[in-house]
Design a protein that fits this description.
single chain; 305 residues; mainly alpha; Rhomboid-like fold; 2 domains; two-stranded antiparallel sheet; 14 helices; 63% helix; globular
Length: 305
Amino acid sequence: MTSIFDDIRSAFSRGNNALHQLIFINVVVFAVLIILRTIMTLSGSGGMFSYLMTFLSLPSNLDLFIFRPWTLITYFFTHLEFFHILFNMLNLYWFGMLIREYLGDKRLVNLYILGGLAGGLVYLVSFNTIPYLQLRAEGSFMMGASGSVIAIMVAAATLLPNYTFNLILIGPVKIKYIALVMVLLSISGATGGNAGGNIAHLGGAILGFFYIRQLQRGSDWGRPVQAVLGLFRGMFQRRSRLKVAYKNPNRPFSGGSSAPMSGVSSTGSTPSQLEIDAILDKISVSGYESLTKEEKQKLFKASQK
């Protein structure tokens, strides 16, 4: 048991680990809910478990949502079906690796959260304005990370349209076609049994596309997300006391000196937003392979911001 908690602590203490953290949160929530459902069902409290899930799933009923606004976030970390979470986490890993490599961990988190929010809002609006869906809104709830995941898929396809995945039994396929198929399947399923989930897919897909387009124009829609996350991190992290060590006790410390240390070059500074925008535009047109070594280094530095 100690080893499990150590693994958890290690997963969240390391930097540049957002992809694994997102997958880990989803898997842990899934495992806890499955265990809880089994225990409560066997003990004759299955109805109570269903009621509990209404506090985690996103309701289509606006009156109920007003009293449970947190479900707009909890729903995209909640799964109850094995194949649902399996396919979501596989797609999150494959496409999330691309976003993480080219844009960094922070923008991966931005896409996941904004995609989930967009999917949830489109779901709420659609089930309360479209007549066909209004007739099916009674008792409708939505859960799953599909909106977040398809936002990441479409974002990766928008950023790197000609990047190729080798699919089993099919062979090499450009990710722009994979994303297109997913969007078309979501459109075709918007009138089916899982209308709510497919509607959320479309909301996430739209968000993923425009997130990258705006990023290429120099505007990062994820800054408010990082501001909120930074606030929460600040609340839960302990502030360490500043300690100053003197190598030479006979030499007083001067805190006002701003002169650079000898031997340190200023050429390694973080590239400007204009440089990054130009690099992203080049990737969109010619692919990542067309970048020079210097451009790749600049993109890597920017992803660490």
